[in-house]
Design brief:
With about 350 residues, the protein is of the alpha/beta class. The chain folds into 2 domains: about 5-125 and about 310-340, Quinone Oxidoreductase, Chain A, domain 1 (Alpha-Beta Complex), CATH 3.90.180.10; about 135-285, NAD(P)-binding Rossmann-like Domain (Rossmann fold), CATH 3.40.50.720. About 25% of the residues lie in helices and about 25% in strands. The chain has 9 helices and 15 strands. It has helices at about 55-60, 135-145, 165-175, 185-195, 210-215, 230-240, 270-275, 290-305, 320-325, and strands at about 10-15, 30-35, 45-50, 80-85, 95-100, 105-110, 115, 155, 180-185, 200-205, 220-225, 240-250, 275-280, 310-315, 335-340. The strands form 3 sheets. Strands 3, 4, 5, 6, 7, 14 and 15 form a 7-stranded mixed sheet that branches. A 6-stranded parallel sheet has the order 10-9-8-11-12-13, sandwiched between helices. A two-stranded antiparallel sheet has the order 1-2. It starts with 8 loop residues before the first strand and ends with a strand.
């Protein structure tokens, strides 16, 4: 396929308009682009796996945020894993597997400054976009560094069957904690209980009062809340947190598509009386923990303490729909797009 790259056409997904409310496929366009040959010091990567993540919704807005907004009429950026197919760089050989951030396209050129070699002999390549990638690091940092989790604490995790939430649950279980998750379907609840080992799961779609249900499941209160949702889950956690409890704010997917901000929980005063620490974080500010994380996570995987699920969509042209599906609650675990190759 790549014997004459000057004649090869690749496909890219461009953001062509900024979504108002929930994104639709009309906000995206699949574009054909000619593939350029690598020049001296460069190599060409053929993507095999693309990451689809909720944080991307924030980058689709033009306003100020912790990350630069996506440019219109330009390829979407995101985590990706691929193989080197042509190289004029002595450090990268044809066949090497690499991790980058040039997702949502079939091919990309690099000089190695934005790329990391990965070992796929013991885990699947796409694991580096999930449990061994930023997803896993987010869970690790958020729970152990930000929330300062201790053994045998009570932990509440929202969006527990999601990419980050499911890893949070398993790290907490590895620390001998009592874990309550929230999820929105019988399938997710069964997986969390039977496979992940979560102690209790709240089906938020079938419960009128999450706070009351959490109190029923944790009559002694909770010590840590890992927030991926916000809204009524955050309110319930504040109601049930013990004195000196910790809240890690990782994401608030319940409000990502809101065109106007919603009022916050009406029980924030309890943060003062209970001396609760509530802290948000951006994982890229904690890359000093990456080596430690990889060592520990690899041990947990090898010992069977951490497993994962993937929701896989095939074909670059279906990446927009895979992203939209993040907001309808159908996916489990890490959302990925698989490319042929």
């Amino acid at each position: 396929m790549f014997t004459d790259t000057t004649q090869t056409i690749q496909h890219e997904i461009h953001l062509i308009s900024r979504p108002e409310g929930t994104p639709t496929k009309s906000n995206f366009k699949c574009v054909e682009v000619e593939v350029k040959e690598p020049s001296a010091g460069q190599f060409l990567v053929q993507n095999r796996w693309l990451s689809v993540d909720p944080y991307m919704r924030g980058r689709m807005r033009a306003g100020e945020s912790y990350a630069e907004p996506f440019e219109l009429n330009a390829p979407m950026q995101g985590g990706c894993v691929g193989k080197v197919v042509q190289s004029q760089n002595a450090d990268y050989a044809i066949g090497d597997w690499v991790l980058g951030n040039q997702g949502w396209r079939t091919c990309w050129l690099s000089d190695g400054s934005d790329t990391t070699k990965i070992d796929v002999t013991t885990v699947s390549p796409q694991a580096y976009l999930g449990v061994l990638g930023m997803t896993g690091l987010t869970a690790y940092v958020g729970l152990l560094k930000i929330a300062e989790l201790r053994d045998k604490e009570a932990v509440f995790v929202s969006a527990a069957s999601g990419a980050v939430g499911s890893v949070v649950c398993q790290i907490a279980k590895a620390k001998n904690c009592f874990v309550v998750g929230s999820a929105g379907s019988a399938k997710k609840i069964k997986w969390l209980k039977d496979k992940v080992g979560v102690d209790e799961v709240i089906n938020y779609k079938e419960v009128d009062d999450i706070s009351a249900k959490l109190k029923e499941l944790c009559p002694q209160g909770i010590d840590v809340y890992f927030d991926n949702v916000g809204g009524d889950h955050l309110k319930a956690a504040i109601d049930n947190l013990n004195t000196n409890g910790h809240i890690t704010c990782c994401g608030m997917i319940s409000s990502y598509n809101d065109q106007e901000p919603k009022p916050g929980p009406n029980n924030l005063m309890k943060l003062i009386g209970k001396q609760i620490r509530m802290e948000g974080f951006i994982v890229r500010d904690h890359l000093d923990k990456q080596d430690e994380f990889l060592r520990q996570m690899s041990q947990w995987i090898e010992s069977g303490k951490v497993l994962w699920e993937e929701t896989v969509t095939e074909g670059i042209e279906n990446a927009p729909q895979a992203f939209i599906n993040l907001f309808n609650g159908d996916k489990m675990g890490k959302s990925l797009v698989k490319l042929n190759g």
